[in-house]
Design goal:
Blueprint lengths: L4 H21 L2 H4 L1 E9 L5 E9 L5 H7 L1 H12 L6 E6 L2 H14 L1
Parallel strand pairs: 2-3
Antiparallel strand pairs: 1-2
Helix pairs in contact: 1-4
């Protein structure tokens, strides 16, 4: 996704805003202890890829986030005073899984 300085700034703001909103709309049973690890925003501020990881979450916690996405998009637009709603695309951050796999391989050597 092509980014600009403004989109990077909005991405940083989203990373701070989203965790409390997720906590407000979902219970720990649905998404576990969810953390936003990264946010990439398109240059036109129309789409944001939100990378999340969660402790103690069911395997389909990203689907639970997709269900509440319209509510979160509306609240984000109000908080950031954007002219139009930004589409949030939820993606599971797989980096921690790769780190665990690398650590296991290092132990075996």
């Amino acid at each position: 996704m092509k980014s600009s300085p403004r989109s990077q700034k909005v991405g940083g703001m989203l990373a701070e805003i989203l965790p409390p909103l997720i906590e407000k709309h979902q219970t720990p049973n649905q998404v576990g202890l969810c953390s936003v690890t990264a946010v990439e925003v398109s240059g036109d501020l129309g789409v944001a890829d939100v990378y999340v990881d969660s402790l103690g979450a069911p395997a389909n916690f990203v689907e639970a986030l997709q269900k509440i996405s319209p509510k979160l998009e509306h609240e984000v637009a109000k908080m950031l005073k954007l002219r139009r709603k930004m589409t949030l695309r939820w993606k599971r951050d797989t980096a921690p899984l790769h780190v665990k796999k690398m650590e296991e391989l290092m132990k075996d050597s």
